[in-house]
Every structure is written in C-alpha cells, then in structure tokens.
Design brief:
Length: about 230
C-alpha cells in the first residue's frame, strides 16, 4: 500500500523517503518497486518515547509506525519530532486488518486510538469478513461524527492514491492543529481569536488518548496488543 501511494499518488519529480522502525527494516526488503529512483527506504530508532529519524531529506516523507506498539506513544513521539522538523503534516493514515479485528474484539479499543488520530482509514484484509461487520465497524465512528475518510483496500491497492494523500484535515484530534487560529472581524481593525471553549490544539495533555494522570499513566490507556497472542 505504501508503494502504491508513492508510485501513483505522488508527482514523478517528487522525491520520497519511507521511514520504518529499525526492527522491521528487513521485512521491507521485499517492498514492490516504486518505479522511481528518487524513493528510498530508511530505518529509524524507536525507543517508545523518542523517534530518531536522523537526516530526513525527501520532499515527501512517509513515516510507518510500529504496528504492534502503543499508538499513543507513537503519536506523542512523532508530535515532538514534528515540532523540531521543517516538515508539515500531510495526512495520518490508519490501515485496519479487518479479519483480525473481526476475530479479536480486544483490538477494537486499540483501533479506537489509531482512528482518533487518523485522516484516512484504509479497510484491508476483508476476505472472510462479512459486509455486516465492516458496516458496523464504520458506523462505530460515523455515528460519533468522526470526519475521517474510510476507503477500501483491494489486493493491496487503493482505488485513488492521490485522494488518500490530499492534505486535508479530517481527524478528530486537535493535537496537530495550528494553535494560532484567528478570524477576521469586519468591525475591528485587528484579527480576533475564536470565541468559545479553550482550544486543545498543540497540547498533548489535553488530548483524550495522550493525557496522563499524576502517576504518569495514560488517563485512557489502550490494550497491549503484543500480549494477545494473535501476532506471529
């Protein structure tokens, strides 16, 4: 899917880097060719709290999170890296293994966290999964007015890679929003901040999945899916 997005979702002149966890780097050796010489795979250090990406230089960077890690830890570490980088966040994409999720209900709270931060949700590995389950999974979020885009994956591909990569914010979290939001008031000479509740933008401590208790533990922890015994 990553190869597909790079090959068919980016302009041929755009250089791309795909960063994967160091522990998973060998598994990416079989990545299908992207058909371009200006794309390369890099490995980053993942220590649970910090991401060491070293030297990033691509025009477009794909950061692949550890698929078995706590997504809240991954997002928080990425957020800190992003603040120090010269890059802007394009989109957060979540890939759902529908077969595993339908067979193991304990995965759903883990996906709740992932989808909270996602602009796009790709529903993959649907062979053997009923349409009823897929519809119910989507409704779990649409009924709560999640703005994220749901798309199907067929044979490892999405129907419109360019659409997936459109830099349009559709995520529930406000973490990556601009903290300096202003509207123009025709009756005033200067811009005025939005009225209403205090913004949660740019503050990990105010995000429901990132907030911590005094003990340092998450207020809304997600299950450790490594302990479920369903991943080989």
């Amino acid at each position: 899917m990553v190869s597909d997005l790079v090959e068919f979702g980016l302009d041929p002149a755009t250089s791309a880097e795909i960063w994967v966890p160091k522990e998973d780097a060998e598994r990416w050796n079989g990545l299908p060719s992207t058909g371009r010489s200006n794309c390369r795979i890099q490995a980053y250090e993942w220590e649970g709290e910090e991401m060491d990406l070293g030297q990033v230089s691509g025009d477009c960077v794909f950061l692949v999170a550890d698929g078995l890690a706590d997504p809240a830890d991954a997002v928080e570490a990425f957020y800190e890296w992003l603040q120090e980088s010269e890059y802007e966040l394009g989109r957060v994409i979540c890939v759902v293994d529908c077969l595993r999720a339908s067979n193991e209900e304990k995965l759903i709270p883990w996906y709740d966290c992932c989808i909270h931060f996602s602009d796009v949700v790709l529903l993959a590995n649907r062979n053997g999964v009923s349409n009823k389950w897929v519809d119910a999974f989507k409704e779990r979020y649409t009924k709560q007015y999640y703005p994220c885009l749901f798309e199907f994956v067929k044979k490892g591909r999405v129907s419109n890679p360019s659409l997936i990569l459109v830099s349009e914010v559709r995520r529930m979290t406000k973490l990556f929003d601009d903290v300096d939001e202003f509207v123009f008031d025709d009756d005033e000479e200067e811009d005025q901040p939005f009225e209403g509740e205090e913004s949660n933008a740019g503050d990990p401590g105010k995000d429901p999945f990132l907030a911590r208790r005094g003990s340092g533990q998450r207020q809304n922890p997600v299950p450790d899916i490594r302990s479920l015994g369903i991943f080989q």
